[in-house]
């Protein structure tokens, strides 16, 4: 484990932490070269538990034999860059990292068929753009019995830094994949794509024919996909129209909707399969 002291954030070895955009880290044209950043010893430890490959680490010197010691020891012979707190604190968002960042090799994309093969409950996220919501949904999915998550092509990347942070590393624990080749493919064939995977689909939306989220028919479905829409506009009309069910959360006091992450958590709990009840 080579330890390398750096004195400037312009050091070439730190570009992955300081200057690469999320798109550059993801490297869509060459997925095998993609990278993601995990923050804090707990989240880094979860990534290691799940088999992700570390590339390098950046930490305050005082953490090498402290908070970061265990994850450093588990990470093999990767370079560990260290710097003073004063220097690292100039990194945007550094105060949220518990003083430790780790670059990991991004896994190759998985197919929807692979991640849903043995699933009874999945979440399908349509065009959700906010990384905080993505992270919160994954955390609820891990806690409340969702077996896999599918994201549409216009969704936020679950392996972006904020989504990983908000999820507390559960994005590494829940299998996920992209559904649909591109925006048009999903929005033209949404329900068909879900049905081909062997699931009944339940669109979370307000409409005249919506059933309540606690309707027993949902829990009795052996394989159910809960489809949640983007912030503000919700699900596309075509998606709602072609799903097997339209589901609403009954509310009071004139409130007509919840934040998508809050709605997801409630729906995950209420529609859990009978085998998990």
Gist of the model:
This protein is of the alpha/beta class and 277 residues long.
Protein traits:
single chain; 12 strands; 277 residues; 5-stranded mixed sheet; 7-stranded parallel sheet; 12 helices; elongated; alpha/beta
Q: What string, H for helix and E for strand, traces the elements in order?
A: EHHEHEHEHEHEHEHEHEEHEHEH
Tell me, rounded to a whole number, the average pLDDT: 89
Q: Number of DSSP strands?
A: 12
Shape: elongated
Strand content: 15-25%
Number of helices: 12
Q: What class would the helix/strand composition place it in?
A: alpha/beta
Query: pLDDT under 50 segments (min length 5)?
Result: none
Portion of residues in helices? 25-40%
Characterise this structure.
Helix 7 runs parallel beside helix 8. This protein has a 7-stranded parallel beta sheet. Helices cover 32% and strands 19% of the residues. The chain is built from 12 helices and 12 strands. It has helices spanning 15-18, 22-26, 41-49, 69-74, 85-88, 112-116, 131-143, 161-167, 183-196, 216-220, 237-242, 260-270; strands at residues 3-5, 35-39, 54-60, 80-83, 100-105, 121-125, 148-151, 176-178, 200-204, 211-212, 224-228, 245-248. By secondary structure, the protein is α/β, with parallel strands linked by helices.
């Amino acid at each position: 484990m080579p330890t390398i002291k750096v004195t400037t954030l312009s050091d070439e070895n730190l570009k992955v932490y300081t200057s690469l955009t999320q798109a550059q880290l993801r490297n869509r044209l060459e997925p095998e070269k993609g990278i993601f950043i995990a923050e804090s010893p707990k989240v880094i430890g979860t990534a290691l538990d799940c088999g992700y490959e570390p590339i390098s680490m950046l930490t305050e010197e005082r953490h090498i034999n402290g908070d970061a010691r265990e994850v450093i020891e588990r990470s093999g012979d990767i370079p560990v860059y260290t710097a003073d707190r004063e220097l690292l604190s100039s990194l945007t968002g550094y105060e949220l990292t518990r003083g430790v960042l780790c670059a990991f090799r991004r896994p190759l994309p998985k197919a929807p068929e692979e991640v849903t093969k043995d699933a009874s409950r999945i979440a399908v996220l349509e065009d959700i753009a906010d990384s905080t919501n993505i992270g919160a949904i994954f955390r609820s999915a891990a806690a409340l019995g969702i077996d896999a998550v599918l994201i549409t092509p216009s969704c936020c990347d679950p392996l972006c830094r904020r989504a990983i942070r908000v999820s507390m590393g559960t994005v590494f624990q829940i299998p996920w994949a992209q559904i649909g080749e591109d925006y048009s493919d999903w929005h033209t064939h949404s329900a068909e794509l879900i049905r081909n995977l062997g699931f009944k689909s339940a669109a979370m939306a307000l409409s005249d024919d919506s059933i309540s989220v606690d309707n027993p028919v949902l829990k009795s479905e052996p394989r159910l996909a809960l489809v949640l829409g983007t912030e503000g506009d919700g699900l596309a009309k075509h998606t709602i129209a072609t799903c097997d069910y339209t589901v609403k959360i009954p509310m009071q006091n004139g409130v007509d909707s919840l934040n998508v992450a809050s709605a997801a958590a409630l729906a995950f709990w209420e529609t859990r399969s009978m085998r998990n009840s």
